[in-house]
Each structure stands twice: as structure tokens, then as C-alpha cells.
From TrEMBL, chains A, B:
PROSITE patterns (UniProt xref): ACT, HOMOSER_DHGENASE
Keyword field: Amino-acid biosynthesis, Metal-binding, Methionine biosynthesis, NAD, NADP, Oxidoreductase, Sodium, Threonine biosynthesis
Name of protein: Homoserine dehydrogenase
Catalytic activity entry: L-homoserine + NADP(+) = L-aspartate 4-semialdehyde + NADPH + H(+)
Species per Swiss-Prot/TrEMBL record: Pelagirhabdus alkalitolerans
One Pfam family in the UniProt entry: NAD_binding_3
Family statement drawn from the similarity comment of this UniProt entry: Belongs to the homoserine dehydrogenase family.
Documented EC number(s): 1.1.1.3
Length: 431, 431
């Protein structure tokens, strides 16, 4: 195999980037692979539209068959987006034994497991690192670099939109609604921001990362998700005064062969490496048994980072093809799927209560906790704006989810408690 | 090739770790490579010594020839340390067409270029990622993951000992001497700490990373080095009051096809990702034209992180062997070596002066700078402990090395300036 032939689906900003990267780095790529890579067909809507990049016009086509049913083509690189039609196109490509590289996160979220299974049946690879965290090679790292380590925890900021919003709320003291509107105007957030701000996008990615890290089948429905809509300036300020920053954090953990995966607004110590990841940047923190703590930080999206990630995946696919190990992307889960129960889920929490400012209130509240063996790291009573009212803000030591829920239920029944204002998970080592 | 056979030199903590990792991950490694890996010989000093790991006693030998002259063996994994004898052993192995993986940073610093050349002549690889930053796969990332990007800047904390010392000095307000002594007692610093605290170890690593990043031959002598011996508590406090943290930072930059590589105590904004890298941790920040900013963070050393990195390198060597592209580790420099002159080196600086507290002193000093077109970001005059004396602390905007040196010379000639106390580079984007 002297030359590998590629069919490119899509020639928008990412597709154009892929063409450029391949052109500019031809010599280096040959050096690293021992063979050449050539684009022979590009699927576009309009073959006559002027393009930003110099290409042979004969490459362009609007007929998918010229790619997926083309015997000459070894690999399909999909950077055109879309879900239903794209899924069908990739299914046909796999049945024709084409290797696949895709940057399509919506497609992988919906049809990823199915496509991976079909790829395996056809001895093909699907590489999708570009769909997870743009410029961060986290799939490859979990799958390869840390292959020889037992991974205990993966913790990350895997959604750029929500991190942008949380950063602006924290640094500029602005409200969620105001920052969301700005992010939409700047193109960092979609017109319908639900999938981002409610944590679904992050949850899909965490499910994929947990699969890879723990070699266990984890579905989206196994992820406990809470978005950032309800996080207020007051929450951010109280967290700050206790030494924490609030971020939307995905956490996948494994203890005693049981997994727990969550996505929720989480308090991190201000000097935790993830606390400093700002704006639309992503970062993934991995704790391995042997390696200890490692972190990967980079742009979560953007057309050039994505194009670069696509080319890295393309190189990996070619390497596998030449090694005769294509079809190994989908790893049959090595371990039986076991999830933690509420009794087994342990973490720290931040709790904010609106209370009556009267004698015995504080006592009544702390009794609820001590009856359930919940102990505090920090506790703070502050006067509220309304007379005769106060706020209590506290962080707990490690408690089970069951202890937390029991305590919150009991608190809501107390006369002196007006309202449970908010509660968040606390994570990250205190320095 | 169904089975790749490995000779392991050394069975200390790293060697034992390598044996364990290979044993525990045999299935996964086969899956990723399409072949098995087997250790067949281990070179040790004492074949009778009891070992922490279960091994076939017939593997053990104290005769190097049983490894390097053994036709059965494909790959030598060197984790025994030492320089002269080890160099000779690896030279013989290469002449016998053995592939090499090494974690030996002192050896690579002294004989790396020579060994890489010999490897190339013999169509062999030498992989040495474990020798650079322990658990961070930075060589692989520069060489592979970001292969398809132009790298503009590599900036990192690549020496754990100095980062440990700077962290303790900053967080606990202790002196260099005191912290160094503690680090020696804890085993984080060598009895002779010269190579670490004077920045040489970091300089060697930055030279290697600059080679990889810029595809240009950069030698140790091309790196401008300044260690941390002279950094005082007062420097740290003044930096802090201006919003900066002092770290020993290696910077390799490329503009207009000209490189500059430095290792020196550097002020970074307190919220820069590298400013939060604490204790013995390492981190490398890479700025690529397409990808933008990415950062890799992890333990700089330690026997299990190193063993894991060694096994990752071993897998890469096997992959290359099977792809028929062994011997490509040494890349002939693609670009002509061009270094920046003092007129072309631009950066920001922090300068501390002891001055006479008299009318016109401040004016005389600022005149020196303005005559040389140096403008300030921040400037601060403070009374010193001695009467009639003061200190001036300032940070400049970007100026050339030439402007800096000229200004400092002129200042030292001024009667009102008693002493140039210290000056450091300032880097990292201000938020």
C-alpha cells in the first residue's frame, strides 16, 4: 500500500482545513506512516461554488456513491455534519468496508454505539476524537497512552458553551440570562442552548469517556445530569468566599469495580487545575493508578483545532489499516456494568439554606445533620436582606448520596428552614 | 511477527513496574498491536537477589551479551541508569539492529544525538519519552498528535525539583536554602543539586523539545539558562503584589523562522495555567498555529509513571517495527538552524532597583528607560528598610533584549541607583 485514498464528505471550514493540513504536511505524514495520503473525491452540495482552497475540480461531486461505493477509496472523512442522512451514508460506507473518521458529535451521540458495532462487523475503524473535545486528543490518550494504566477517575470540563457562561458569570458578576444572550450573539451558544446548558452534551461525552476509561458499557441514561440554569450570582459569591469556583464538571469514577458518572455544577478549590480553565476552553483531568494525576487542556472546538484532530485520527486509521488491526475501535466491554447505589456514592457537598433568624434555629439544623452522621468542613451563618431571616452556608465532609438526600428532606420539614436555596457537589483536593 | 521479544536492562523500581504493567495488560496490548510482547531476558547485577515480582529465574543474567547479542531479541528496554557503560551497551545493541526504549535522561542529554544518529544508520528507533517528563507523553504529542500543526511556542515546567522548591518558597514563605535542604532529605533533590537548580536539566529538555517542535537542530548551548538560586522571598512578594507567580519556566519560541530558547525564573500571571502547577508536577504548554493553546500536565517523575511511559514507548516501537518504518525517530532537521539576535528577542521584564530616596531620583531612572523607548506596564516606588533609601519595582511592556541590557547598563551608572537587585522575564497572557 503505497498510497491511501481518501473521500472527504464536506468542504466547509473544517473540510477546507483538512485539505490544507494534508497538503502542507504531506512529507511529514509520509514519514510517520510509510505511505502517502491522497484525497480523491470530495462530497459537496454545490460543485460550482468557488472554494477557499486550491483543489482539482474533478474531485468535487454531489453524488455520495462516488465516495461510499468507490472501490478506489479506503477511508471516508466525514466533516459535513447532519444526522439522519449522514448516518445512512456512513452505514453504507462501512458495509463497503471503508474506514471512517468523523468530527460529528451529534451523530456519535445518537448513533455512535450502532456505528461502532457495524464497523466491527466489517473490520473497519471509526475514529471520532475530533467530536469529543476538539483540540484535546483525549480519546487517543485514554485508549492508547494510558492503555497500560488502571484509570480511577476522569474529571473534566467538556462543554465550551457552559464553561464560557460560568467564566463570565464568575469573573464579571453577570447573570446567567445576560451571558447566555451574549454567547448566542457571539456564536458560542446555539439558538436552542438546551443540550449545552442542561448538561446533556457534557453527559454524552462523559458516557463515552467512561466507556473508554473503565472498559465498561456506560450509557447516557447512567449519567446523573444537572445543568447550570439555576446557578446564581449569590451561589458563586458564597462559593468564592469559602475558597471555591463553580464549574460545570463531568466526573466518572470507579471504586470496587463500580462506576459513577455525573455532570453537575461543582465547587472546586480556586487553585485546582480545572478551576483556571476559562471561557470556551476544555480540559480533562485523568487519575490513573500508576501515573497519578495528568491533565489535558485545549480548545474545545474551532475549525482548525478540529481539522488538526481529524488529520491525527486519519493518520491513526491508516496506521491500523497497515498493521492489519482495523476494526478494533469498538472494544467489547471487558468488565460487567456495575453502577454505584446511593449508599455507595460518596462526595462532599455545598448547601445553602434560607432560615428564620431566631434562637435555636442553628441548633435545630445542625442536629438534623449530626443525627445522620454528617459532619461539616465549613459552616457560616449570615444575615439575609429580609429582617428576621438569615442564610446558612456550609460544606460537608464526604457523605453518601443517601445521607445527603435524607438530610435535605429532614431540613425541608423543619419550621425554622424557609427554603433549601441550592446545593452542589464539592470536588478536587484541598491544598 | 506473532510475538515480539524484549530484553530488559535493569530490575529496580522502574524495571519491576515495566514487568508488572506488561503482565497485567497483556490482552489489551495484543489488541492494540496485533501481536504479543514477551520479556525473555533481564540484565541485573545480582541474579540471586530476591525480587518483588514473579519472574522465571532463567530470564535473569548479568551478561549483557545475552541481551544485546541475542538474535532472538528485537527490543532492548533500558531502565538501569548509568551513563558510560550504558551508552556502550546501547551502541552495541543498535549495531546488532535492536530497537531501543530508554528512560535515562542523563544518558540522552549527553549521548542522545549520537545514539539517534547511530539508530538511524541501523534502521532502528530509540524512544525516550519517559526520560523527558515522566508521565506526560509530550515527545509523542509533539511528534505525532500535533504533527499536522505548525508549533509557535512551547513553554513548560520540565524540572520537578525546582518547581517543588519554588512552590514551597511561594506558598510557605521559606528560603531557598531551607527548602532545598528539605527537598534533599525527602529525596526530591539530589545531594549535588547543581544540574536541577541551575536550570541545566530543564535546558537539556527544552533543547530536545525545541528540536521536535521546530524541526530545527537546537543544541544545549543555544539555550539561555538562569537558575533559581538567586530568587529571594522579596522577589516573590513583589511579584505577588503585582499579580504574578515566579516559576522556573522553559520557553522555546519561533517567529519568522528564527528560534529562541530560554530557561529562567519567569513571572506568570497568577491565573496562568502554568502558575498553578505545584510541587514536583510538570506541565508543558504548546501553542500551535492551528490548534491554539493546549497543555499537558502530569507527574514529572516517579517509578510507576515512568514504567507506564516506558510501556507506551515500547508499544510505539513495536508498531513502527510492524509498519516497517523503524529508524525514523531521528528526523533530519527540516529547517536551517537560525537563532534570534538580541535585537530580535522580545519579551516583558520585571526589574527591581535599590535607589537613593531623593528628589529627582525617580525622574532620572524613568529618563533612562524613555531614552531607550522602554515603556512600563506597572511601576511602584516603596520605602526600603534603610533611611534615605527606596526600592523601585517595575514591569515593562515588550522590549528587545538589547533595549533591556542597554537600560540596565545605563541604570547602573546612575548615582541615584545603588544596586540592580534583580530582573526576571515576564510571560503569559494577562487576563
Amino acid at each position: 500500500m503505497d498510497k491511501v485514498k481518501v473521500g472527504l464528505c464536506g468542504l466547509g471550514t473544517v473540510g477546507t482545513g483538512v485539505v490544507r493540513v494534508l497538503e502542507n504536511h504531506q512529507a511529514r505524514i509520509k514519514h510517520k506512516l510509510g505511505c502517502e495520503v491522497e484525497i480523491v473525491k470530495i462530497l459537496v452540495n454545490d460543485v460550482k461554488k468557488p472554494r477557499d482552497v486550491i483543489i482539482d475540480p474533478s474531485w468535487l461531486t454531489n453524488d455520495p456513491d462516488e465516495l461510499v461505493a468507490n472501490d478506489e477509496i479506503d477511508i471516508i472523512v466525514e466533516v459535513m455534519g447532519g444526522i439522519e442522512d449522514t448516518n445512512k451514508l456512513l452505514e453504507r460506507a462501512l458495509k463497503n468496508k471503508k474506514q471512517i473518521v468523523t468530527a460529528n458529535k451529534d451523530l456519535m451521540a445518537l448513533y455512535g454505539q450502532k456505528l461502532l458495532r457495524l464497523a466491527k462487523e466489517n473490520q473497519c475503524d471509526i475514529l471520532y476524537d475530533a467530536s469529543i473535545a476538539g483540540g484535546i486528543p483525549i480519546v487517543r490518550t485514554l485508549d492508547d497512552g494510558l492503555a497500560s494504566d488502571h484509570i480511577e477517575k476522569v474529571m473534566g470540563i467538556v462543554n465550551g458553551t457552559t464553561n464560557y457562561i460560568m467564566t463570565k458569570m464568575t469573573d464579571e458578576g453577570r447573570s446567567f440570562d445576560e451571558v447566555l444572550k451574549e454567547a448566542q450573539e457571539l456564536g458560542f451558544a446555539e439558538a436552542d442552548p438546551t443540550s449545552d446548558v442542561d448538561g446533556l452534551d457534557a453527559a454524552r461525552k462523559m458516557a463515552l469517556l467512561a466507556n473508554l476509561a473503565f472498559k465498561m458499557e456506560i450509557d447516557l441514561t447512567d449519567v446523573a445530569v444537572k445543568g447550570i440554569r439555576d446557578v446564581t450570582q449569590a451561589d458563586i459569591n458564597f462559593a468564592e468566599s469559602l475558597g471555591y469556583t463553580i464549574k460545570l464538571i463531568g466526573i466518572a469514577e470507579m471504586h470496587d469495580h463500580k462506576a459513577q458518572v455525573t455532570v453537575e455544577p461543582t465547587l472546586l478549590p480556586k487553585d485546582h487545575p480545572l478551576a483556571l480553565v476559562k471561557n470556551e476552553f476544555n480540559a480533562v483531568f485523568v487519575h490513573g493508578e500508576a501515573v497519578g494525576e495528568t491533565m489535558f487542556y485545549g480548545p474545545g472546538a474551532g475549525s482548525m483545532p478540529t481539522a488538526t484532530a481529524v488529520v491525527s485520527d486519519l493518520m491513526e486509521v491508516i496506521r491500523n489499516l497497515r498493521l492489519g488491526i482495523s476494526g478494533n475501535t469498538m472494544i467489547d466491554p471487558q468488565f460487567k456494568r456495575q453502577l454505584k447505589t446511593d449508599q455507595e456514592k460518596y462526595s462532599r457537598h455545598f448547601i445553602r439554606l434560607a432560615v428564620e433568624d431566631q434562637a435555636g434555629a442553628f441548633q435545630a439544623i445542625t442536629n438534623v445533620f449530626s443525627d445522620r452522621n454528617v459532619s461539616f468542613a465549613k459552616i457560616l451563618q449570615l444575615p439575609a436582606e429580609k429582617e428576621d431571616h438569615a442564610e446558612i452556608v456550609m460544606t460537608t465532609h464526604e457523605i453518601s448520596q443517601e445521607q445527603l438526600l435524607n438530610s435535605l428532606q429532614a431540613l425541608e420539614k423543619l419550621d425554622v428552614v424557609n427554603r433549601l436555596i441550592s446545593h452542589y457537589r464539592v470536588d478536587g483536593e484541598e491544598s
